[in-house]
Amino acid sequence: MPQASTYHHGDLRAACLRAARELLEEDGSAALSMRAVARRAGVSPTAPYRHFPDREALVSAVAAGGYRELAGHLAAAHPEPATPDELAAVAVAYVRFALDHPALFRAMFAEPCDPGNEERVAATAAVSEYVRGIVRRAYPDAAPDALSTAVWALVHGLAFLHLDGKLDASTADAVADRVRAAVLALLGAAPAPR
Amino acid sequence: MPQASTYHHGDLRAACLRAARELLEEDGSAALSMRAVARRAGVSPTAPYRHFPDREALVSAVAAGGYRELAGHLAAAHPEPATPDELAAVAVAYVRFALDHPALFRAMFAEPCDPGNEERVAATAAVSEYVRGIVRRAYPDAAPDALSTAVWALVHGLAFLHLDGKLDASTADAVADRVRAAVLALLGAAPAPR
DNA sequence: CCTTCTATGTATGCACTGCTCACATCCTCG
DNA sequence: CGAGGATGTGAGCAGTGCATACATAGAAGG
């Protein structure tokens, strides 16, 4: 625990990430400015630049955290899904996450994932691997790449269409039903699970 | 054609949209500022505000144009798709459009489609209806809402995953093959076309 | 034809932003 | 204990969105 020494913050990097995350949740991505983060962390406007070379880097770090959080959220929905129903439950959790954290979710996908940011690349790769693993386990006889790509794309697209108001997202149940139905429809085309 | 009268531009609104579109294609969404648009249109920094109440409105108008362009692009891929293969061709065109105009595509979906902007809402509704109509025609016996939602989400998700570099988009052929395979897989689960 | 009204463009200015650079402070380690 | 590097501060620049007051021109009506 950092003592109340005025000058050095103690863990400014973490404080910046937390502040950025809060700003994102409260007022959306437009409110996520370096200076606002600094204000919220109770620090001078340029202090965050000691930990993040530029705004891009801050956003990428927040996004990376978002990926980790998403992975945890999915795992919580079902640790090792194997049946189509279990897989659909994970899909519902994915869309739920997007709807619960719209600004964060957009930050995670709005800008191109610059290959320069290793943390971010690694985090997205982890999600990708997670989905692939699930599909491989559930459908060992299918072409895993094609099927997991299709599943991820379907779920990802559903998340965005709900976010954009193209699909009614007013009740959680309706969203869940829609996502489940779409995923099960896609999986119906795959070889039946063993 | 407007004469070279210095003061009044002639059709500044259209010029702004064109300039904004160019800036988007050239340097991405960050370069799309009111002032940059004004500069490119050869007009004072605040002139565009006569035609767009704020930046949001300008972006929404550009996005609306993008939706119309996308609709045209899809129709060009196949005017009235009925078979799964034809439908897949339209899907490929959708993803192609996203990859050819990444910044525009992101502008179309990055921010929540505020229900206030009628032009934008109408434009997205048109695309939605277009997809629905295709699916209804191709699969008259399926639940049209569920199936068209699933198809759109799949294709939309594929577009974003390619945009974000999660799927290799280096060659157009590879992208097309992947999209086709995913769409045909999904459609395999639907009642066969008559 | 001349006035007036309104749409459209201009000029100025404020608050804010990302970012740079010079400086201050503190912790660590030789 | 003293040097040096890490971390924070401060002032300042260029650029932004936008509001407000002003200028201009083309159309409408006498």
UniProtKB/TrEMBL annotation, chains A, B:
Residue ranges annotated for the HTH tetR-type domain, each copy included: 10-70
Record bears the keyword Transcription: yes
UniProt keyword Membrane, yes or no: no
Organism: Streptomyces varsoviensis
Recorded coiled-coil stretches: none
Protein name: TetR family transcriptional regulator
Lineage: Bacteria, Bacillati, Actinomycetota, Actinomycetes, Kitasatosporales
Database matches in InterPro entries: Homeodomain-like_sf (IPR009057), HTH-type_TetR-like_transc_reg (IPR050109), HTH_TetR (IPR001647), MT1864/Rv1816-like_C (IPR025996), Tet_transcr_reg_TetR-rel_C_sf (IPR036271)
Signal peptide boundaries: none
Residue range(s) of DNA binding per entry: 33-52
UniProt KW keywords: DNA-binding, Transcription, Transcription regulation
